[in-house]
Amino acid sequence: MEALLVSTGVVALAEMGDKTQLLAFILAARFKKPLPIILGILVATVVNHGLAGALGGWITAAVSPEILRWVLGLSFIAMAIWTLIPDKIEEEETTIAGKFGVFGATLVTFFLAEMGDKTQIATVAMAAHYSSPALGAHFTTLLMVVIGTTLGMMIANVPAVFIGDKLADRIPMKLVHTIAACIFAALGVATLLGAGSDLGF
């Protein structure tokens, strides 16, 4: 349950003002068709974060516990710093939208925009952090992380689709980014101090 709740909360906060949320605003303003946009975001996120979760699980199996502890701890601290840097949407990510219809445009642009994005990297790091050595628990934990990060993306992006720019002006983005950065930093410090020792790192 912890993996699900932490993954949901951290990604929902990290996604506020992120380039994929900005993309949701742009697509909503352009197409004015919320349902296919939301479905496109959901499918793109499930596929993207599923791959990220699998990578996190593989890292847990392939890297020694001591190295993993340092890599994860420093990754979370780097995520804290990255979260404080505002994102800008790339124009080429929105030009794809005219070629595939609303659902297809959202699916393609969201998947591409999420590649290497902070929420995808966070999914990899959290999947590695919460993966336990036991095979059954390993799969369940990875599943909880992916469900949590996907849910976090939807919590941040569904209102963006429905309310668009009106919502963006009222959310204190600096405060939200600061809270998300503090959570990432706390996870990083806790990991470096051995808080995951019960999981083998």
Automatic annotation (TrEMBL):
UniProt keyword annotation of Transmembrane helix present: yes
InterPro entries cross-referenced by the UniProt entry: GDT1-like (IPR001727)
Pfam families assigned: GDT1
Source organism: Advenella alkanexedens
Primary subcellular site in the record, as a coarse category: membrane
Keywords: Membrane, Transmembrane, Transmembrane helix
Name of the protein this chain belongs to: GDT1 family protein
Membrane topology per record: Multi-pass membrane protein
Similarity comment: family membership: Belongs to the GDT1 family.
Extent of the signal sequence: none
Classification of source organism: Bacteria, Pseudomonadati, Pseudomonadota, Betaproteobacteria, Burkholderiales
Stretches that traverse the bilayer: 37-61, 67-85, 97-115, 135-163, 175-195
Record's subcellular location: Membrane
